């Protein structure tokens, strides 16, 4: 076997690992993808299937607006780099207003089928239960991507901890319930997207809305606050991720918090009572292509399973709801990446190991897949002997690399304040807000923020394409 044809090993076939494997194979380098789900008796606390790239909670890749939304920009960058996660997501989208949401089973099956069919990809169902094996002349273990996610198996997590001498960092992440559509009462609920916003598929009525008056809202908050919660005594000091707070934790912050968050009633009109404004509205988003399942948007919860059905059936329209899946809370583990990883996302203590996905301290399906995409390209370039740098910080992808490898500030005494982050414009170098548009017309003050985002997105895509075109890897 020539050096060039040695395989690269990817550990973990989630969002990041699947994308990394695809990018490596597309660069003409053989890849062996090791995924532990599929081995009898081996699972994580959140995955339910053996499929690659399984979505564990919501089915949304969030906004698809590349001009004004940072995650939409990340979508665009990934599409420009032939992302398998984006192409399968686009092929399996379901209506979701301005967001890109997918049929979770169809999406995962498509990613699995594409990887299984690729001649350069070998999928092995096994747990890597410790540090990856020693490298020899031919086995390829000199170039490894670890993409084992927030629920990395305990044996591998322990080996990484021992190697780095660092305590793992962690936070809580929660899952929202999914409801069978035929158990929703459409004499009460109605379909409409907020502000009738049309989605990529042209649907302006993507969400199911369940209205509440003031008395119903107050009773619901009381039930949420008093309902029995799952306790995690051994993880008492573990923080929540702010973008994914359990609904009861939000309610504890103030009785009105939910009305200004996931239950906000704005931009929606009850067709049965158009003159009366609902006091609060619960939204559900289509979860599968058949339209038989809907997930409760923003309703991630740590209520005990027995209590969930009772409390959520207080929501008008859901009084007879049947739940396909209940919510739950999981501990999420990530590395102290700014200290441990270099800008190639290699472990300084063992550079043959690259890390990708949520375990590096990015947060979310899209961000995790983006880091898989990048490490796949970096690893393939290294295998081909054609060095490649991470994209510039002006791109969404480069900004994520900057965040996980050193863009944050530590606290006094060097105590790490590194926390997982969704992509956002604050991670990219700032630009002056424009005062006039491309035609020289003055932009009103309140629209300048939007105009600035558009400029930042255009700058990012241009830089990303220049990076791609100068890259030593083939481009399709
Ligand atoms: C409870 C929970 C809810 C979440 N909800 C959302 C959400 O609603 N929206 C969102 O955008 N993000 C959500 N996230 C975050 C989301 O899981 C991640 O962003 C994303 O799945 C991470 O992708 P990944 O590839 O890094 O990890 P994963 O997709 O989890 O993939 C890791 C893979 O590695 C495998 N594996 C683990 N250890 C080993 C081993 N030793 N050997 C072989 N294989 C191994 C696992 O089986 C898994 O398939 C949630 C996370 C959790 C834990």
TrEMBL record:
Sorted UniProt keywords: Cytoplasm, FAD, Flavoprotein, Methyltransferase, NAD, NADP, Transferase, tRNA processing
Binding positions (FAD): 12-17
InterPro entries: FAD/NAD-bd_sf, MnmG-rel, MnmG_N, TrmFO
UniProt cofactor(s): FAD
Compartmental location: Cytoplasm
All residue ranges annotated as the MnmG N-terminal domain in the record: 8-385
EC number: 2.1.1.74
Reaction catalysed by this enzyme: uridine(54) in tRNA + (6R)-5,10-methylene-5,6,7,8-tetrahydrofolate + NADH + H(+) = 5-methyluridine(54) in tRNA + (6S)-5,6,7,8-tetrahydrofolate + NAD(+); uridine(54) in tRNA + (6R)-5,10-methylene-5,6,7,8-tetrahydrofolate + NADPH + H(+) = 5-methyluridine(54) in tRNA + (6S)-5,6,7,8-tetrahydrofolate + NADP(+)
Main location group: cytoplasm
Broad class of enzyme this protein falls into: transferase
PANTHER family membership: GLUCOSE INHIBITED DIVISION PROTEIN A (PTHR11806), METHYLENETETRAHYDROFOLATE--TRNA-(URACIL-5-)-METHYLTRANSFERASE TRMFO (PTHR11806:SF2)
Family: Belongs to the MnmG family. TrmFO subfamily.
Cited function: Catalyzes the folate-dependent formation of 5-methyl-uridine at position 54 (M-5-U54) in all tRNAs.
Name recorded for this polypeptide: Methylenetetrahydrofolate--tRNA-(uracil-5-)-methyltransferase TrmFO
Annotated source species: Brevundimonas denitrificans
Organism lineage: Bacteria, Pseudomonadati, Pseudomonadota, Alphaproteobacteria, Caulobacterales
Gene that encodes it: trmFO
């Amino acid at each position: 076997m020539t050096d060039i044809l040695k395989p690269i090993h990817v550990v973990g076939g989630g969002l990041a690992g699947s994308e990394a494997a695809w990018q490596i194979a597309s660069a003409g380098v053989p890849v062996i993808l090791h995924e532990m789900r599929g081995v009898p008796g081996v699972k994580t606390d959140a995955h339910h299937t053996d499929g690659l790239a399984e979505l564990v909670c919501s089915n949304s890749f969030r906004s698809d607006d590349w001009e004004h939304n940072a995650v939409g920009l990340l979508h665009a960058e990934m599409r420009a780099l032939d992302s398998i996660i984006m192409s399968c997501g686009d092929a399996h989208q379901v209506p979701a207003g301005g967001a890109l949401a997918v049929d979770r089973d169809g999406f995962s099956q498509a990613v699995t089928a594409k990887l299984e069919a690729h001649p350069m990809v070998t999928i092995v169902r096994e747990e890597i239960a410790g540090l990856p094996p020693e490298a020899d002349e031919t086995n390829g273990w000199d170039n490894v991507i670890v993409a084992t996610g927030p629920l990395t198996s305990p044996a591998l997590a322990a080996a990484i901890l021992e190697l780095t001498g660092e305590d793992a960092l962690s936070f809580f992440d929660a899952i929202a319930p999914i409801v069978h559509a035929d158990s929703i009462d459409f004499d009460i609920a109605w379909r409409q997207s907020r502000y009738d916003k049309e989605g990529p598929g042209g649907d302006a009525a993507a969400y199911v809305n369940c209205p509440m008056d003031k008395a119903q809202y107050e009773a619901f908050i009381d039930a949420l606050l008093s309902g029995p919660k799952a306790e995690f005594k051994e993880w008492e000091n573990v923080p929540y991720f702010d973008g994914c707070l359990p609904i009861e934790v939000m309610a504890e912050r103030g009785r009105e918090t939910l009305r200004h968050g996931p239950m906000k009633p704005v931009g929606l009109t009850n067709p049965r009572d158009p003159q009366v404004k609902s006091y609060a509205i619960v939204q559900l988003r289509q979860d599968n292509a058949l339209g038989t399942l809907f997930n409760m948007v923003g309703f991630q919860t740590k209520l005990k399973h027995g209590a969930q059905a009772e409390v959520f059936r207080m929501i008008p329209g859901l009084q007879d709801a049947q739940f396909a899946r209940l919510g739950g809370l999981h501990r999420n583990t990530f590395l102290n990446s700014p200290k441990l990883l270099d800008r190639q996302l290699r472990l300084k203590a063992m550079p043959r190991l690259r890390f990708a996905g949520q375990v590096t301290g990015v947060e979310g399906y899209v961000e995790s897949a983006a880091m898989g995409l990048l490490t796949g390209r970096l690893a393939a370039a290294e295998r081909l002997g054609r060095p490649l740098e991470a994209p510039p910080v002006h791109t969404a992808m480069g900004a994520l690399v900057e965040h996980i490898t050193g863009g944050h500030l530590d606290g006094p005494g060097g105590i790490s304040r590194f926390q997982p982050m969704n992509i956002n414009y604050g991670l990219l170098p700032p630009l002056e807000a424009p005062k006039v548009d491309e035609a020289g017309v003055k932009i009103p003050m309140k629209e300048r923020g939007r105009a600035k985002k558009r400029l930042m997105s255009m700058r990012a895509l241009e830089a990303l394409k220049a990076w791609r075109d100068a890259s030593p890897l083939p481009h399709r």
